[in-house]
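LysM domain-containing protein
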Amino acid sequence: MLFVLGLLVINLGILKKNEPTLISKASAITQTPLLNIQSFEVEPNIINVEFINSNTSYLKTPQAYQGDILTADGPLSQIAYIKDNVINYEVQEGDTILAVAELFNISEDSIRWANDLDYDELYKGKIITVPPVTGVLHTIQTDESIEFLAHLYDVPVEAIYNVNRVAYDGVKIVIPNARPVPHYKEPTGYKGIQTQEYFIRPVRGFNWGRLHNNNAVDIAAVCETPVVAASDGVVVKEKHDGFNSGYGNYIIIEHMNGTKTLYAHNTENIVSVGDIVYQGEVIATLGNTGNVYGITGCHLHFEVQGAENPFVVK
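Tokens:
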């Protein structure tokens, strides 16, 4: 019978009815690091899976080819499944989400999330997506980095690298031991001032435009003016109730392209670490906390880390 696991092609042995239980082992796989690239070509890797019993001369390695669909009528439950591929599975008569989850040794929720299932909506012949490990599937979007996804789903970067071979725009990767993240909130109120750059101006006010400390500019406005996220991202740091090295109350957001923005001197921070924010969403109110003095008064200290600050007046 033919089987396929994602990008890897696997040779599986066929078990005979009265033969003893067999143990499997897979030849070593050289893992390819994750790459943020636009396109790629890949030749299928062929992996030999050897079935060994007391008579070690008994080895069977029929081939399987890319594009085949796994079913439960083969020796799938009796092999050491090579868990680094997203696969398609054809539902069999009597299958439940629990039964399929147990077959592939992953959680029921992982199957529900991968197939957008609210209930046990399985029927014979239905093709479902099965992640290789417990977790969620994520489709890579333009400019998303693995580091951003690690923050987004609150998992270690290494965990994502360990179970994925490549990552590029449009491909689905596995985020192990993660849960689905909330959808971005629609922005409300002030949308920000759009520029030709990646970021919008985070507050309505007077931009002094002078570059200073840590690639920053100051934008002055009335205290309590809403401060918005300059671009989509995830909150990676939030500090309040202290001088905080002169920043006062501040927030750092990591964005999908790997850059970070810092918003300092806030009266109040509205978001918390781990929150997903949408470009134009209110994250704080303008203030004068921390090291604030002189003509600027209430203002936003806005830093860009990893790119040019687009609000520097040249």
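The CA atoms of residues 141 and 169 lie 5 Å apart.
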